[in-house]
Amino acid sequence: MFLDQDNSPHKPCARQQLLNYSQEFCETEFYLQMMQLGPDKWCHLESISKYDSLRVDAAVVNSLICSYLLIVICLRAYSSLSICVEMVSSHLRCFYPNAGTQDFFIHIHSLYFQNCTKKDLAPEDAPGWVVMVLTLIPVSLIPVLVYLVVWKSKVQE
């Protein structure tokens, strides 16, 4: 699924270090943002992920990871988490996405978003008039087609 860094000629990705940094620098901030938002809004995508454009000093994120000015595209909790994990991966010279970041996001989803599935997943029935029209059209075409076949066979005789 992801590029195999272990077979690359470059320095391999330190998966454990990637996980540790992601948890220390990204998950901690994400936790604070999610607690500030409140559990009742965790399942509302508009509340946790919003795209804006702003310049932010990346040293605020962590001086160990970045010490330059970065254009941050996303500011809300989940979007910030994604950017943070990507920055950590870049700092550790790991491909992004990779199996380690996938495992990290699965961990995040299991903690915060496990109860976000819709309860009524059953599809709604189509309105009665739609069912009637879609049933009558093919049924009414059958006698017409039978008549055409019979008429065509009589004409050829």
Automatic annotation (TrEMBL):
GO biological process: angiogenesis; calcium ion transport; cellular response to hormone stimulus; G protein-coupled receptor signaling pathway; intracellular protein transport; protein localization to plasma membrane; receptor internalization; regulation of G protein-coupled receptor signaling pathway
Compartments it resides in: Cell membrane
InterPro entries to which the protein is assigned, alphabetical: RAMP (IPR006985), RAMP_sf (IPR038126)
UniProt keywords, alphabetically: Cell membrane, Disulfide bond, Membrane, Receptor, Signal, Transmembrane, Transmembrane helix, Transport
Tagged with keyword Kinase: no
Gene Ontology molecular function terms on file: coreceptor activity
Domain of life from the UniProt record: Eukaryota
Family listed: Belongs to the RAMP family.
Name this polypeptide is given: Uncharacterized protein
Organism: Cynoglossus semilaevis (Tongue sole)
